[in-house]
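Inputs:
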Amino acid sequence: MNAEILTIGDELLIGQTIDTNSAWLGKNLALLGVQISRKTAISDSENEIISAINEAFQRVDFLLVTGGLGPTKDDITKKTLAKLYGCGFRRDEGVSAHLESIFARRGRRLLEINRQQADVPEVCEVLHNEVGTAPGMWFDQKGKVLVSMPGVPNEMMHIMENRVFPRIKNRFKTPEILHYTAVTVGVPESLLSKQLEDFEKTLPPHIKLAYLPALNTVKLRLSGQSDESTILRAEMAGYFDKMCKVCGDAIFVREDISPLKHIARQLIQHNIKISLAESCTGGFIANQLVMEPGISKVFNGSIISYANEIKQRELDVPTEIFRTVGAVSEECAKYMCESALKKFNADIAVSTTGIAGPGGATPEKPVGLIYIGIATAKGSRVKKYYLFGTREQFMNRAANCAMMMVKNTLFDDFGIL
Amino acid sequence: MNAEILTIGDELLIGQTIDTNSAWLGKNLALLGVQISRKTAISDSENEIISAINEAFQRVDFLLVTGGLGPTKDDITKKTLAKLYGCGFRRDEGVSAHLESIFARRGRRLLEINRQQADVPEVCEVLHNEVGTAPGMWFDQKGKVLVSMPGVPNEMMHIMENRVFPRIKNRFKTPEILHYTAVTVGVPESLLSKQLEDFEKTLPPHIKLAYLPALNTVKLRLSGQSDESTILRAEMAGYFDKMCKVCGDAIFVREDISPLKHIARQLIQHNIKISLAESCTGGFIANQLVMEPGISKVFNGSIISYANEIKQRELDVPTEIFRTVGAVSEECAKYMCESALKKFNADIAVSTTGIAGPGGATPEKPVGLIYIGIATAKGSRVKKYYLFGTREQFMNRAANCAMMMVKNTLFDDFGIL
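Outputs:
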């Protein structure tokens, strides 16, 4: 079944607020078999609201509306809905009591402007909002359902989870929809799609493959839709498995998760201590790993060795390296990761040395050149990459390449799949 | 002038991607006097795309379309636009050459599927995309302008900044709009707005003040609109100066720039070497500084000392500190920054030690507690903060607090304003 989302509020249009509600709604409704076919953001204007709702109901039978339910003058959604449905207001006793208890708890007086939040259009059913002051509303008229909710993310989620999801299952017949996602690293979208060309042809019409490229990664997402939940599950699992086999080593993880987060979790789960000696990535990889709660169990620390003097003094890179092959070299990367392994008592250590740009390039060493080293007790290995983009993109790509090397090393040296 | 945004792609509807493009577009177009009046997200479906474009052009003359320009089968925007404008394709030589040079640089073969990215609808003008493979396209037919761009954020931003913004000024009549922005650190929005209450009353109707709060910072933006450019400029400068005086020490910088970027630039300009010893911020501050090109002139390196063992061995924190006051303490922060100063031959060193959460808290040391230390040859100082939010928010807030301390130290110890 298709549905649409309508968000009301200037803050979304002028870019003051990033709309995270829609992504949450899209993801969670998909799990119930409700496909969001369109999202529209408009301003707090009566004409805009009425015409956007009328347009949406020409396309779908189910519309989720967020925003414009606050107590202040610029919030006009409720008034506009009453006008649209041609009804008056009634004061809801449940909401009244809830407001009184909230204000009593905060030791504040309930003003008339607050009390009016209990006034709802007569034809709607109230969707109680325990975590806020504005109730949700369910309108079901002429075969079309409209749900109005506050735009505050946790209030919207609360109302959806506790009031709307159960009602959707009762009110609509929805098919089962499943998504299976795998993340690849290092293989471009065009090459993947060539590899998967034959596989794609075998897909039945109700299962689709999408390519979602980012920096040195492509997410492959299989989406299936059916009324036969058990059959679909088995079918999807089979196709997903085939797809992953076709891609072989390009598959980083058979889950919708970033390579850095996946590795952080793997390290924590298997108690493998990691350290880093970063030059050109300037702490980017360490910082991304450290974003994972619980990382302190497997991360003692790491060093950012930008200057040659620090590479030499803190990581024992011999000075002759700088005179001969230079700091951006396989040899330097090797010394760096091997020293970081010892210095921080780690089980696995990663080093980076390269040219992030825009300055610092030479004819032999262009912007984007990077050597990534990995050391464990069993030895070390270094790989050379050419990565492009801004400094930030360069670091992101380098991190993904490094995580692919860590993944392979976790398998080779620790037997972790 | 009003414009609309149309985003194409299932990933936005099923919630796999959060739409950050629209907020960026809304914010940056507003600076040019273009108001986003509606944003619509639809799937990669020809019918949907055509009807959404036709609907939008009934409301506005300017439509920005993002997404659906990849090389794979599910990307149909380009084909659909050619159909909509009733034209064929031409291969663009500039794009062809760009694709060849990208693939040559990466040492990869240019497949026909990649080469087709140089095929564009005959009636469009190509908006060259230096940072990606899919070009932007500018359609200007029957008084209506449609801009099609890739959905990848940095590519979209690159095309907007370099190709679309200049064209908007030429193609449309937009009034002169000026923005003067100052960034404050550490003072909450509610307090600032109280301080600025009287100042705000003196503003003429064509000059407005906006508060843009973020993590421990509030941007104060004065926006003026007029047809008399020279008069407006003088007027704005006067009001901006007054506003900054009212805020006093809360003003971090009189420019729309992040505190971290501002400090990085100050350090480079005055040749002051910085280093860091980060515990709870896990390389966040170092990595943000390193994002600034040219930082290598004043950044030798830094250490992330997560475990006590590393704080002791690498930064000479005495073991008795851990037994008595603990690693999250004023004393530990002091040792850390003083050692980092020496270890990395720096002129100024920053240390952080705290509880980023969600774990690790004790009744005396709650999540959010952090000590930040600053050392120079003249001595060191430590400040204690309570910062809240997720791990990432905690690190952002901590970085802003640290930058305020660096700014004050640059003035006190180096005479840099």
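Remarks. DSSP finds 16 helices and 17 strands in chain B. Chain B has three domains: 2-171, 176-253, 259-414.
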